[in-house]
Each structure stands twice: as structure tokens, then as C-alpha cells.
Amino acid sequence: MIIIDYAFFTKGVRLIMKMDLMDILACPICKNEELKLIIIEKDKEEVETGLITCNKCSRYYPIKKTIPIMLPDDLRDMEEDRNFLFTNKEKIPDEILKNGKPVSL
Amino acid sequence: MSFPKKSQFVLHYPKKMDLLRSEHVLFNEIKSLVNNIETFKNPKIGLEQYSLPSDLIAFILILTRKDLINNNIVDLGCGTGRFTLPISKFFSERVIGVDSDFSVLNQLRSAMNKLHLHVDLLNTSIEFVEPSNWKNLFQTTIMNPPFGTQRRGIDQVFLRKSLAYSEVVISLHKTSTKSRNLWKRIASSYNKRSTILATIEFSVLRTFKFHLHDQHNVKVDLIRFSNKDSS
Q1: Residue B4 included in any domain
Q2: Cα gap A14→B170, rounded to integer Å
Q3: Residue of B47, B94, B124, B125 for testing the chain A interface, max A β-carbons within 10 Å
Q4: Given CB atoms, is B105 within the 8 Å cutoff of chain A?
Q5: Which of A42, A81, B63, B85 lies most in the core, judged by the most C-beta atoms within 10 Å?
Q6: Which of A31, A49, A67, A84 is the best residue to mutate to test the B interface, defined by the most B CB atoms within 10 Å of its own CB?
Q7: A19: nearest CB among B124, B125, B137
Q8: Is residue B121 within 8 Å of residue A25, measured between CB atoms?
Q9: With contact defined as beta carbons under 8 Å apart, do B129 and B98 qualify?
Q10: Contact across the interface for B124 and A71, Cβ inside 8 Å
């Protein structure tokens, strides 16, 4: 069975252990601060692999090895992003797989 | 103990600096920790990735420790973590390393795990740091920004951004009268003042092919930017 673990970015929810990183993250493109976290893989308290998504501009930002990667389109490796979606496709909502930016499946 | 004695850098200002016995111990502990943190494996020219000598890092952290102890700290352009990790071990656990290069953050993470430390990491570029969000969370920013030799003006971008959200910014900049005046003007526009804590010369090992010599010397100012109305 596939379990999609959703958590919303609200004050007090911790992505990373020491600080409320949520509070400082905004979408680099549209500056939207209400981002959503999709947990793909957890290691103890930390999100080892995941996605941060922005529903305003449909962008997604991967979390790899606990590190959120919030880069503008021109600094992203599209091929790698596509691979990331493909590898984790069973744990990522269809909406992102199909219409996510900057690259979808 | 005084500087520069057998150190990897030359202190031009202040003329002399003595460490207390307790600081001497801390100095050596920081230095040996930093010696265990690798420098850049494949330095990228555009990002001006180079590392500071371990004793210089220890010197800087001891000199600025009042701004570090128990504060929430951003290490902007943290690279392989040679500031980030000693800060988290000796000064404040609440430190975040920010860099635009994922591969060096990954390298930092391995070093961190080996040393049984934990810091938060964020892969983003300086243009996308949102000062209004960061203001409530961080007091101090420490950074060794690119000098701007590859990307003109990038040092200014780092400085303006960090001044916008931090109470205190500790930063290294190439020494020149012209830029000292510029930093002063920029600081003033954020209602801050700049104080030169030290002027230091050290050699950067040959990292890039365009470096003609095995090493070349750079002279930098260690500058503290703080609110005009505070100490």
C-alpha cells in the first residue's frame, strides 16, 4: 500500500530539527509563502527525501538528503528533476507528475 | 599567545592580539575541528570557491564570538562548512548553512555526520533569500562572500541582502579604500555602521588553472556591521 504523507507548512511544523525552516521559505519564483510539504522518505525526525510544492505557480522543489533545493529554473538540472519525479512517482500526486513546473513527466 | 606566530595568515590590523589562556584552548579546538573538514573537491570558478586556513577561521570565530554565542545564525555561502560546523559545535546549535551549490552542501552533510553534529542546510541562491521572512528568525549572519572578481558586484548583493534581515553581519571583503567607503555607505542605508575588526593577509592555494602561481596572497578586512544605536 502506498501512503502519501502530507503535512502543511504552518508555524511549529518542523521540516528540519533545529529551526522552523518553514517560516523562512518562500517560492523563489512567485514569492508565495504558503508552500506544501510532501514527505517521500523520512529518517527519524527529518525529511530525507521529499518535495516542497507551490500551488500558485505549480512549481515543485525537491528535498534530497534532507536538503531543500529551492533554486530558480535556470539553475536547475531539468534532467535530474525529471528523474526525481520518475523515481518517486508512486509517492507524488498526479497533479505534480503531470503539470508540475519546471518539468513534468 | 600572540599573532601572528607560526600562523597561516598575517595580521596587519590590529598590530597585536593576545589570546587569554581559555581562548587559546578554544582556538586550538576550533583549528583541529576545521582541519577535519575538507576543502572544495571540485571548486567552481564562477562561484569563487576557495577555503580559508583553519587558524584564520579559529581567529575570526573567537574575535566575533559575542555575536555567535546562542544566537540564531546564518552562514551565507557556507561552502564545505568550515564556519558552519565549528559554530554549531562551540557557539550555537541554531545555525543554518546556505549555499547555491548542492554538491558542496552534500559534502558538508557528510562531514557533519562524521563529526556527529547537526546543522540545517538550504540550497538556494542569494537572490532568492527573502529578508522579510528571515528577519524574525536570525540575529547574526557570518559570511565569506565571493569577492566579485568573477561576477561583478556579487559581494554587494550578499551584503545588502544580509543587512536587510540581520542585526549583525560579520563579513570578509577584499581590502581597499574604495570598497571600505562603499561598505560604509551601504551600511548606513540600512541604518547600520561598519567596524573593521581586523585586516588579514593570507595565501589562497592555486585552485584554478588561471591562477599563474601556486599560491597568491589576498588581503581582506574582517568587518562587523551592527545597528547604529547598539554596541
Answers
A1: no
A2: 28
A3: B124
A4: yes
A5: B85
A6: A67
A7: B137
A8: no
A9: yes
A10: yes
Q: At what angle do helices B21-35 and B54-63 cross, to 10 degrees?
A: 140
User: Is residue B66, in this structure, part of any structural domain at all?
Assistant: yes
Of the candidates B2, B11, B75, the residue with the CA atom closest to the CA atom of residue B220: B11
The band of B5, judged by pLDDT with boundaries at 50, 70 and 90, is: low
Identify the closest residue of chain A to B71 by CA–CA distance. A19
Cβ neighbour number for residue B116 with a 10 Å cutoff: 7
Å from A104 to nearest chain B CA? Answer: 21
CB–CB contact B125 A18 (8 Å): no
Tens digit of each residue's pLDDT (9 = 90 or more) over B64-96: 999 999 999 999 999 999 999 999 999 998 899
| Grid cell for residue A78 | 531539468
Contact A75 B100 (CB under 8 A): yes
Residue B215 is part of a domain; what is its CATH number? 3.40.50.150
pLDDT at A10: 31
Residue B103: which residues within 8 A CB-CB, separation 6 or more? B41, B42
Chain A residue with the nearest C-alpha to that of B131: A24
In a domain, B45, yes or no: no
Q: Please tell me the pTM assigned to this model.
A: 0.89
| Calculated CA dihedral for residues A69, A74, A77, A78, nearest 10 degrees | 110
The parent domain of residue B190 ranges over: 9-39+50-227
Are the C-beta atoms of residues B96 and B119 closer than 8 Å to each other?
yes
Q: For testing the chain A interface, which of B72, B91, B119, B123 should be mutated: the one with the most A CBs within 10 Å?
A: B123
Q: Provide the number of structural domains found in chain B.
A: 1
| Residue B4, all three cell numbers | 601572528
Q: Indicate the DSSP class of residue B69.
A: T
Over residues B106-132, the mean pLDDT reads 91
Indicate whether B146 belongs to any domain: yes
